[in-house]
Amino acid sequence: MRTSEWRRRLLNIQGFERVDDETLARTDFWLRLAPAMCGVIAAAGTALASPAVLWSLALIAAAGAALPFHPFDLLYNLGVRQLTGGPKLPANHAPRRFACGVGSAWLVVTGALFASDSDAAGYVLGISLVVVATLVATTHICIPSIMFRTACGQLASYLPRRA
Q1: Nearest CA-CA partner of 154 in 3, 35, 15, 5
Q2: How many whole angstroms separate alpha carbon 8 and alpha carbon 3?
């Protein structure tokens, strides 16, 4: 089993450059679980204009920024993995943890907008967060990780070289 070169680059941007190809190939789908669940819950919180849902998700995202794993990764590591015999998800490093921190702040602000009756701005931020989460869940393109790599001057090393 092998991960395509392009997908490998996208995962490396998220901080998985030290993970072997076989582990990435076997966990590729499950690395999408946390962003997918965040996207679904953020969509529900946005649709309901619910600060409580958004702030609760912000706490979960903050844990993902502080810990070497996202809390939703536990669903795979402690559940699905036991049934399938797959490898443990690799640890999240700085770029992906930064993305969780960005998501947490974004959720706090979105919830605050709904709490202050600024619903139009809340919907704009909420929908844009859902789009970003959906992008990483479906393609592994993680905009906050790209921002992290760019700010650290590292992004060019993960892009294809021109001939």
Answers
A1: 15
A2: 6
pLDDT of residue 161: 72
- How many domains does the chain divide into? 1
38-88 confidence digits (pLDDT tens): 999 999 999 999 999 999 999 999 999 999 999 999 999 999 999 999 999
Q: Do residues 73 and 15 touch, judged by C-beta distance below 8 A?
A: no
- Does the residue 122 lie in any domain? yes
Q: For residue 119, tell me if it sits in a domain.
A: yes
163 lies in a domain? no
Q: Identify which of 28, 13, 55, 12 has the alpha carbon closest to the alpha carbon of residue 137.
A: 28
Count each helix (H run) and each strand (E run) in the chain, helices first: 9, 0
Cβ-count burial 10-37 (b if 16+ within 10 Å, e if not):
bbbbbbbeebeeebbbbbbebbbbbbbb
pTM: 0.93
Cβ distance 125 to 109 under 8 Å?
Answer: yes
How high is the pLDDT of residue 1?
A: 58
In a domain, 38, yes or no: yes
Q: Which domain holds residue 85?
A: 5-158
